Amino acid sequence: MTRAKVTAPGLKRRLGWAGLLAWATLGLPGISAADDVNSTGLAVTEDTVKVGILHSITGTMAISETGSVQAEKLAIEQINAQGGVLGRKIEYIQEDGASDWPTFAEKARKLLVNDKVATVFGCWTSASRKAVLPVFEQYNGMLYYPTFYEGLEQSPNVIYTGQEATQQILASIDWVVKEKGAKTFYLLGSDYIWPRTSNKIARKHIEKKGLKVVGEEYYPLGHTQFNSVINKIKLRKPDVIFASVVGGSNVAFYKQLKAAGIDLTKEKPLLLTISVTEDEILGIGGENVEGAYASMKYFQSLDNPNNEAFVKAFKERWGDDIVIGDVTQAAYLGPWLWKAAVEKAGSFDVDKIREVFPGIELKTAPEGYVRIHENHHLWSKARIGQAQKDGQYKVVYETEDLMEPDPFPEGYK
Amino acid sequence: MKTTPSASSLMSRENLYFLVLAALLLLVFPVLLDAFRLNLVGKYLTYAFVAVGLVLCWGKGGILSLGQGVFFGLGGYCMAMFLKLEASSPEATASQSTPGIPDFMDWNQVTELPWFWQPFHSFSFTLIAVVMVPVILAFIIGVAMFKRRVGGVYFAIITQAIAAILTILIIGQQGFTGGANGITDLRTLMGWDIRSNEAKTVLYFVTSGLLLACVLLARHVLGSKLGRILVAMRDQEDRVRFSGYDVASFKVFVFCLAAALSGIGGALFTLQVGFMSPSFVGIVPSIEMVIFCAVGGRHSLLGAVYGALLVNAAKTGFSESFPELWLYAMGALFIAVVLAFPNGIAGLYQRYLMPLEKKMLGGLGKAANTRPTAAARRMEETP
């Protein structure tokens, strides 16, 4: 690990030395213990450990990332209330990525080099993750990344707590084919890497079953005119609209669908989305998206004791009107997985933690049981929910077994 | 400024300011800052290239471009393409279905390196392209606009539209450009690891040196007859035209020069940050760059450098100390600049510090006494 050369010691550093001195005079035997759990100079003392939170809390991504920040803080507070990690209270340093990718890289460097945080929970868009990746690899940090994403990546310095594309897509297409008798599909998405990759995986899977894709289209981020594609959909009458439109475009898309007379509750065509969580429905309006199906691994309405406790705690901490989407739950897993790994490794050292990752499990996850795969993604169940008028999803299907994460599906290697 | 003695004292004074900046960049910062902060300053300085270019074309030439991010981005992309090809050697990308091409092409089922990527295997071509690609685009835009006497607000709007178009183009063609993620994970420059602290320090000095050279070049341009014509054009375009000058050609020239500077800044940015993405090409970064220049003082080359440094340092500082509130602090700073000191830091300096300096130094002679007021008047005239 490279250390920054420090010519003019900062205040924090000096305080650190003063603290160390005071503490050393009080109880020398502690030194060896601290070395055992932290041989790489991370910000770990006898009673505290520093971690980083790195999300956009300003800029266009702030709406999406706020939920993740809240979930991570909640998890950290709960862990602290239970006595912390290896007997140390977690202190977080929060930085703002400001929806700007170089800022993410800059802040990641600051967290790893200046603050020496033990781990970082953060990022949301693929672009921000790609920007910080070289920084985490260079300084051997560890990032817990919460968003469902396109896959095609497997870094030794990232744990992906969301679904990668195949986990979200394969089971849901099997389901519409089996349960709804779907034969034709219309693929529609925002124009960037995640929808494009997802639709490629979807198309492959659909065609392998001998079924047909009758249209595939992309619109720029922020696009608000979907009338022409809606007309095409009416003309070609697909059984399923497979939608991966993201962000603000969703509001226009679902309103225009409804205005064009396509009632999603009639399921002709049926709409299956992989991008609309409870958070997005807040903006779209439950009445506009009612009847649509979503494939995710978590819905706020999941009926299990873990989730009940989680939703209750989340509302107590952040307010009653809050909704919890898929990514928020995945972000909540980060601190808990990290705690489990640290305790199994008996150390905060990133290298030692990496060795124990495969097989780390979480039985208390709101989504149910999850386990870390050798490829740093999570084994988790795929679920399908149907959007209700009140903005929640009703779970209509979940896979029996955990789905294996496969970030490099056939044809992408 | 009519008499030679005052002109020569002006030169020496400007030389002094230049030396102060040089000392600050080459001595003070490297001694006082740790590697991480020094690298940040290096990044800020790459924006200063754009700001210096804006002083030339906006402050002096009166051409407000809201699309300088386009040229910054093109320079940056040229460098990124070279670095990405180096990082995508057949050995390093052996696990792809087509080894030897950048990873994002492989994901997008591109099986062959596109023709416009081919020349970027060569470093010397890349260096030329970093300057020439922005210049050629600026030339085309400039000829198309200025020959038709499109100027002022209309020109600003068109440059902004070009910034939007280029962003959409880059994001849409993700198989060839890396899309919204940009070109990431750049590691080495001709085998030299650009991610190490040593490399970042070297790159900092290269950036500082080039920036100082660019400031000198810009000063030379402004000091020449050409510079006078630019200012004359800004203030009374028709008179210059009626005097027989081909106004459009001068405008095209200064716009191209500003584009070249931006391109160099972009290439250095890519080297220091390690990636390039469409988020530096669009409208928002382009307007930010104008703000750097405005905060520093759009009439002053050195002011622009300080403006870029100050705004970016404030951005980093505020956002570290108040992650939830920092945008308000930035907004307040910009409003303060527009309302209270429209000529930026340079204007403030001329107005308040120079008279103080004058008092303290007292008897430096008449030349020094008359000049600041003249300069202050010059600063306050609005184009």
UniProtKB/TrEMBL annotation, chain B:
Transmembrane segments: 16-33, 45-67, 123-146, 153-172, 202-222, 243-269, 325-349
One Pfam family, short name: BPD_transp_2
UniProt membrane topology term: Multi-pass membrane protein
InterPro entries tied to this protein: ABC_transp_permease, ABC_transptr_urea_perm_UrtC, LivM-like
Intracellular or extracellular location(s): Cell inner membrane
Superkingdom of origin: Bacteria
Protein name, per record: Urea ABC transporter permease UrtC
Organism, as annotated: Alloalcanivorax balearicus MACL04
